[in-house]
Every structure is written in C-alpha cells, then in structure tokens.
Design goal:
2 copies of one chain form a homodimer. Chain A has 9 helices and 10 strands. The first copy, chain A, has 261 residues and is α/β, with parallel strands linked by helices. The first copy, chain A, folds into 2 domains: 86 residues, Ribosomal protein L30/S12 (60s Ribosomal Protein L30, Chain: A, 2-Layer Sandwich); 162 residues, SPOUT methyltransferase, trefoil knot domain (Alpha/beta knot, 3-Layer(aba) Sandwich). In chain A, the strands form 2 sheets. In chain A, strands 7-6-5-9-8-10 form a 6-stranded parallel β-sheet, covered by helices on one side. Chain A has a 4-stranded mixed β-sheet with strand order 1-4-2-3, with helices on both faces. Chain A is globular, with a radius of gyration of 21 Å. The N and C termini of chain A lie far apart (56 Å). The model of chain A has no long low-confidence stretch (mean pLDDT 93). The interface between A and B is large, with 46 and 46 residues.
Chain lengths: 261, 261
C-alpha cells in the first residue's frame, strides 16, 4: 500500500517546480514505460498493478511497488490509467554543436501546447531528426502531457532549451564562413516548399502556434518556406487560414526527407 | 440573464442524444463563430458578452442574448471561454456520388479521437478536399471537441457517415467498369508514397488510430501506400513505431497535392 507521503511525492511531480527540484519526471502506461525501461533514460521507480509485473521484465536496479488499480487512479494524471506509472530521472545532456553539422535539426520558437510539442518530438523521431532546439518559452519537455504525447520518442530525440538568436549566432561562428548551415523558416510569405531546393542538413524553424516566427528571430532565417494552401479548390469560397503547428512540422519534415529518394 | 431552462438546454447539447433530438450543435469562441456566421451553416442563437456584440455584425435572423462572463463560463465547454457561444443547426446534406468523380476524397475508418477528427477536417480544408466519408464508428462530427478543433473548416468540408464497404461497392457500380476510381489505403505494408504515381482524384483511406484499416475494408483498397520512417538515421538504435493519424493524413494529402507542381 502506498503511504501518504509517497502519494504526495508522486503528485508533486506534476508540477514543474518539483520536477526541477528533484530532477525527476513521470511517465505512464504500459507501452511508454516499456520503451523507457529499454532506453537510456534511467527509470528509478515503478508503481504498477500485478498484471504489469507479471508480463514485464524489469531490471533489479529499479525500485518496484505493486499497487491496486484504485491506488494507480489516485496517483495518475491520465483519465484512464493504464497498469503502470514510472518515476524517471531527467537526463543531463550537453549539446555538441559539431554533431549538428551534417544533420537536419528542428528549432521550435514558443510552441506553447504540450500536446503539440509531444507530437512534434514523435514526428522528429519518425523522420530521423535527433535534436530539437527550443526557445525558453516553449512548453516544458517533462510536462506529463508532453511525455505522454511523445509515445516513447522522448528517449530517442534530444531536446534542448536556449535563447534562439544567441544559438544561431553561436552556430554560425562555430561553422565558420566557409560552410554556413541553411536556416529554413516556415513563413506565410515564404517560397513554395514543394518547388524549392532543400538541403539534407540545416535547421528548420517552426514558430509559435498563433504568432509564427517572431520579429526577433526573423533575421536569422536564411530561407523562407511555405506550405501552399489548396483550399481555393473548394467550391465553398472560404479559405482555411492555417495548419496546426505539429501538422505543418510533419509536412515540412516529410518534404525534406522525400528528396532523398 | 439566462434562465435555468436556457442553461439546461445549452448544456444538454454537449450530449449526442440531445444534439440528434434537436438537430443543433454548439460552437464557441470569437474566431470560430465569426467563420460560421458568414458560412452556409445556419446559426440560430448567439450567447455573448457585450464585447462581442460591439465588434461583430450579426444578421437580424439570429436570436441574440447578451450575457456576463460568469454566465458564459457556466454554459461553456471550454476551460477558457472566449466571448461567445453559438447554437447552430445541423445541416442536412445529401451526398452526390457523381460530384466525387474528379475529386480527391478522404475516407476515415473508426477515427475515435475527436481532436484527430477535427484536425483532419482542417487538413482536408487546407488541401482542397471537399468531402470526407466516415465509418459509422468514427467520432461524431458535432461533438464540441471536434467542432472546436476544425477551427471553422467544418463550414467548408462536407462530412458523411456510412458503411464503408457498402459505400465502395456502390461507388464502383456507379463509376462503371470503364473508369474505376483508385482507392488508396495507408498501410504499413504499402509502397513508398514518395515514389508511387498518385492520381489527382480518388479516395484516400485512413484507418483507426491503433488498429489501422480493418480486414473488412482491406479488399476495397486498390493501392496500398506507406510513409517510410527515417528513424534508422538516429543513432539511438530504437525506432519510432507510428505517426499520429492526423499527422499521417497531412503527409499523405501533402504528397498527393505536391504532384500538381
């Protein structure tokens, strides 16, 4: 049985303040926890029903607590708790600027919706993008809603938070003048992405859900790209105004990767 | 001031049973309601704060109720209510099979998540797809979560519910043997979408979020397509398992439309 202080401790990790203090985060559900225990993420504790422990092999280094479904419901953030909740250590990673040279990297400016951030991490994983650089105002990676939406991709994609204009200045100094990386920005006034040359490496910048890329970051963009709308095909007369940020990210990543065929 | 019975009536429309009984649905927020009042959707009543009425021109045929913010909070389904709630008539549309002949049409089998359905309707609108055919087990179009996620695209995209195998049989009889429409299905075992010929018309079938396209519908598919994963590029070793259904839909629609350039 869970003690009051255990319940309080787990519940406290729903708040950023306590996640930062303890350097721990929560992941829930059989599929996600199974991905994490076989990844480089260090899982410290597992709270699960007997069903979970019967069907899952767990390293001896992980503290385990067999609990009843009713107890899981008390500590869970989900509307339908699913067998298991894991307490995991927030990994400490150092960004190696050199490692980005030959790669495609996503840059997110102020993506506020946790579901969008989680979905974008899953998209990055699918398209073989290993690193995401986020502005400091982007949703926090270890928010339970982000973690759940990544569906396990959080263990394969590195996410860093930094001041974006400073990052790009630093990056261009690091690359030298000989071989500057291209910085693509998704902008309404950009060129048709389908007909532009797109490089196999560089940065793809996605702006905030309602405001897009800020004035502040705009001077860093070297190539403006746009997903054209086809809604004029519709007989209704009206026009779709925008795409969801995660949807736009997926179309752009798909278009970059398609060029490999 | 709102009467108890008005509040009860509006709240009842959060349930499918009462939406069907009254043939009415709810839409909320300034942007969405503004789109609807200029569309073919018939808005019957508007409940809004004085701010909304001061800034928005409304047809005299619409019943209007000026309410306080606290009253809006009582009737709203949103966590942050935004100036206005509209009660709208569910339109009665009859699908014209002939109208689909030269067009690209989306077909959804058992998309269960209302947010996914709403996002897919918004994607269809962006890519100039006028009609979506849904299986009867797909989330209900007039669920408030679907309506909100469409961001107004619900007024430009026609959504029909029917038995999908029967629909395709009917459709192929209607088209005759001379010019059968292609039926593309998103399947893991499908051919690489980036390198396949794709026609400018036909049907794109998207399966359920976890089960994909059912055994029952599989024989209807004439062309199996797949979005290849690039996650083997990642050094982590693991592999992203799937894309979200709305994300997959957006990549497929983008790829069909790109061929026009």
């Amino acid at each position: 049985m869970l003690s009051k202080s255990q319940i309080q401790f787990i519940k406290s990790l729903k708040l950023k303040k306590f996640r930062e203090e303890h350097q721990l985060f929560i992941a829930e559900g059989k599929k996600l926890v199974n991905e994490l225990i076989t990844s480089t993420i260090k899982v410290r504790q597992i709270y699960a029903t007997s069903d979970f422990f019967r069907t899952t092999k767990i390293d001896a280094s992980i503290e385990r607590f067999e609990i009843k479904e009713s107890e899981l419901e008390r500590i869970s953030s989900l509307t339908s708790p699913n067998e298991v909740l894991a307490v995991c250590e927030i990994p400490t990673c150092q960004l190696n600027m050199d490692s980005l040279k030959d790669k495609l990297t996503l840059v997110l400016e102020d993506i506020k919706d946790p579901g969008n951030l989680g979905t974008i991490i899953r998209i990055a994983d699918w398209f073989g993008i290993e690193t995401i650089i986020c502005s400091e105002q982007t949703a926090e990676l270890y928010n339970p809603k982000v973690i759940q939406a990544t569906m396990g991709s959080v263990s394969r994609v590195q996410v860093y938070y930094m001041d974006l204009p400073a990052f790009f200045n630093n990056q261009s100094e690091n690359a030298g003048n000989d071989n500057p990386q291209k910085i693509y920005g998704a902008l309404l006034e950009g060129d048709n992405i389908y007909t532009q040359p797109l490089s196999a490496n560089g940065f793809i910048v996605i702006g905030n859900e309602s405001k897009g890329i800020s004035e502040n970051l705009l001077p860093c963009i070297t190539h403006k790209i746009n997903i054209p709308s086809f809604s004029h095909f519709n007989s209704s007369g009206g026009e779709a105004e925008s795409l969801n940020a995660a949807v736009a990210t997926s179309i752009i990543c798909s278009e970059f990767r398609r060029r490999k065929f």
